[in-house]
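FAQ: What does the model actually see?

It sees only this:
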Amino acid sequence: MTQDSATPSQNPNQAFDWNQHSEDNSSRVMGEGQDPAEVVWTYGQLRDAYRQMLMAPIQHISRRLRGTEQHVAILANQASPPIKTFADLVRHSKPPLHLLDLAKNFAKAAFHTSTSIPAASSLMLYYLVICVAFLRYDKKITSLAEEQLRENIVDRLSEPWIDAGTQQILTQALTKWQSVDDLLEANSSDDSDVFPAM
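And it is asked to produce this:
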């Protein structure tokens, strides 16, 4: 849930701090015993939280996905140039596909389990990484049906706090999907001419 006013337990002028807002001190962000689904985040807080997620070390993946620390380090260091943050990952011309998949799973885990990271910010990162994988490798790294995936990306684009860089990547992915559809449709029409009905 979002709105442009802060709840009593939140300070709208305080930037989201990834290191401070851990699961151990989530009551400082939410209020003691508050349901995460009922937390009201301001647009500014969502924007700050998302920015902090992008600028966080890529090794934070292992905080949500146990046993991935060494694998993440190898993938990130082998990239050229090396990947240090989530922002580096999504801006990279050739990000390791498996690292993109791990980042997607990290964002999904944060969305479902975090009581301190806004769900909307995690969801934005989730779809951003999916779009980067599609743009760089023509790979769909999610089991979501394509129609549902596109609708969800359109929903993310409607968020008033989205930054220009993320907006550009999501829009490019939607445009590419549409181009693929147009090509398939054109090829389907051509096939009907090559193989006329008997």
